[in-house]
Amino acid sequence: MLIVLSGPSGVGKGTVRKAIFAQDNNKFDYSVSMTTRQMRPGEVNGKDYYFVTKEEFEKEIAEGGMLEYAQYVDNYYGTPLKYVNEMLDEGKDVFLEIEVKGAMQVREKVPDGLFIFLTPPDLMELRQRLVNRGTDDLDVIDMRMKKAVDEIEMMQNYDYAVVNDEVEAAAEKIKTIIRAERWRVKRFLPDYKKQLGDVLK
Ligand SMILES: Nc1nc2c(ncn2[C@@H]2O[C@H](COP(=O)(O)OP(=O)(O)O)[C@@H](O)[C@H]2O)c(=O)[nH]1
Ligand SMILES: Nc1ncnc2c1ncn2[C@@H]1O[C@H](COP(=O)(O)OP(=O)(O)O)[C@@H](O)[C@H]1O
């Protein structure tokens, strides 16, 4: 199963994803993204991201090596296809944390993935989080808010919406959804159909 966590800029995707992976009882693997943005202090190449140059990233795109990618604030971000395919072939679940444009590309390619939209309690709180994060000037924050409203409209293309009111609670809700989704009929039927084909040979 391919699990996609997405949502508007600043809602807390990275924070909630880290809370999910901080617990070691996960049955799924995190797909490390590739990016052209600068490495921040404390980040590790290959763990937080694969940090590459613009030329290297564009070469990957040209060679068909990306499951999806998007340009976000002048940098490329994308999911390398190789690791995702390897995990899915081994029957493992893979977890992507990506912005909405990339998520929609994945929805096209993997329609039976699980798409979860992380949403803020309300727009004032989203703005407050961007202010608290302290990485942007107020005019940039206003631009991000306008973008966030467009991004929130994409919610209708997802399977579940999770309100990020409190980090641990949001992480728990997401894990509950993933557990429940494992028992969807559509995940069993193809396998039984294949077995039937083998049994009747
Ligand atoms: N489409 C896409 N978006 C990604 C990927 N990896 C990270 N992102 C998104 O890119 C945005 C910027 O990430 P980052 O630079 O780490 O900033 P921060 O999450 O705002 O601290 C976030 O919304 C991430 O969810 C990816 O592989 N593909
Ligand atoms: N549930 C929450 N309550 C309060 N602040 C939060 C919550 N989740 C995230 N934040 C804060 O909001 C800001 C944006 O979170 P971040 O994970 O960088 O968002 P994203 O990855 O979606 O851009 C950060 O300062 C983070 O600490």
UniProtKB/TrEMBL annotation:
CDD domains: GMPK. ATP binds at G7, P8, S9, G10, V11, G12, K13, G14. Its EC number is 2.7.4.8. It comes from the Bacteria. GO terms for molecular function: ATP binding; GMP kinase activity. The keyword ATP-binding applies. The keyword Cytoplasm applies. Its main location: cytoplasm. PROSITE patterns: GUANYLATE_KINASE_1, GUANYLATE_KINASE_2. It catalyses: GMP + ATP = GDP + ADP. Keywords: ATP-binding, Cytoplasm, Kinase, Nucleotide-binding, Transferase. It is found in: Cytoplasm. GO terms for cellular component: cytosol. Residues 1-179 form the Guanylate kinase-like domain. Essential for recycling GMP and indirectly, cGMP. Belongs to the guanylate kinase family. This is Guanylate kinase. It comes from Ligilactobacillus agilis DSM 20509.
